[in-house]
Amino acid sequence: MPTIEEELGRRSLLYSLLMPVMSQFVPGLDKGKGMYFLFIKSEAKTPSGLVARPVLTSYYKSTHFKDRPYDPYTNYTSPNETILCPDSYQSMYSQMLCGLCQHKEVLRVGAVFASGFIRAIKFLEKHWRLLCNDIRTGTIDSQITDQSVREAVMKILKPDPKLADFIEAECSKDSWQGIITRLWPNTKYVDVIVTGTMSQYIPTLDYYSNGLPLVCTMYASSECYFGVNLNPLCKPSEVSYTLVPTMAYFEFLPVQRNNGVTSSISVPKTLNEKEQQELVDLVDVKLGQEYELVVTTYSGLYRYRVGDVLRVAGFKNNAPQFNFICRKNVVLCIDSDKTDEVELQNAVKNAVNHLLPFGATLAEYTSYADTTTIPGHYVLYWELSLNGNTPIPPSVFEDCCLTIEESLNSVYRQGRVCDKSIGPLEIKVVEPGTFDKLMDYAISLGASINQYKTPRCVKFAPIVELLNSRAVSSYFSPKCPKWFPGHKQWSNNN
């Protein structure tokens, strides 16, 4: 996305609004620090010599971030050097080490996305022994070779056997439930994005945090920063954002829903003449209506379709507030069916209820439209967290398959039942750690660790091969879902 220097100042302004909003709901945030796991990605250059890098990398490397004046509300446990380290392992290790050393000062924890914060907890689960050794001896592990990182960490790290013993005792326990509040006892909330597909991480975050508030403070993208959440302690399902009209020029394309399903046809980023005539200004949006967000930015994007579908949830004075509903693009398609990510998320959410009696939860998932079979079928890859000792019978996973199919739209079910154009849905259970491997692979190809989100659909052959190679069991829907001929059917082409 094109950007200009002025845009960094505008984004800094939005960041400066977050803590004044939070302090209205959580007092005393100026009395401690935030433990945030923030990362950069190495830069590239375009053929013309322009710097190309992720938007957050651009911000963290700017003087707006690096040379920011001291502010008790934006005081982090991670020194700038640890955030700006391009090696993801060294960056994560050093940030975690600094967070543990300052554990009593931490009042809030977070990352950009829920998935990123959970990855940090998983990192701690794997490397706590090394971290304890560093704290006990006051030295840094030899794998941390970045000199600027070592120097910055040594300003914080002092030999503390008592703290090392405390961390070791907590991390050695059989259960990691509440590990956040156990290690960082003064934490008041978890600051991560848990809207959209990130909502599937809510149970895991609740488990690790003992039910601390999950706060979504802002709404932003690479194209533009949009707005803030003025009621940050609301339930994740009720999060709404108030757009800041000076961030860009916002317009809204009405989205038609039919039988409760948002049309999710993959669309170009530009508007045709008819769509331009349908655009609605920010002041003219209607309560309850859904819109596709269109932006004209100071950096040069003109009437650009962001791809997000928003619903008008209410108003703050006269300012509209929006729920994030979904990305508009299709996730899965075999035939005439078109399944978007919000449909898939809801279907999976319904299915995982079958796992609860067995003490199991869904840690991560993705999907694949397998057209190598005749007919093609949906494949879901599930990584489970097993908190109980009761084996899960195959029939339970078959029930999960059927529940997902029952939860999908009527076009899909017609293809399964009547047209026979779609085969039975399949769930493949994969080994623990599979999705960490998937993320590592994506990062090795150039993805940004700071902005990585697990794809809800995969198509790239090496990724499908990776997932298949780690599958430990496979289950199919035992019968067709319900579908009633004669009911009005909805098509994405209507």
Automatic annotation (TrEMBL):
Pfam families found in the cross-reference section: GH3, GH3_C, GH3_M
Domain GH3 C-terminal as annotated: residue spans: 343-460
Record carries keyword Ligase: yes
InterPro entries: GH3, GH3_C, GH3_M
Organism superkingdom: Eukaryota
Residues annotated as domain GH3 middle: 241-327
Membrane-traversing stretches: none
Keyword Ligase: yes
GO MF assignments: indole-3-acetic acid amido synthetase activity
Entry keywords, A to Z: Ligase
A GO CC annotation given for this chain: cytoplasm
Family recorded in the similarity comment: Belongs to the IAA-amido conjugating enzyme family.
Stated name of the protein: Indole-3-acetic acid-amido synthetase GH3.6
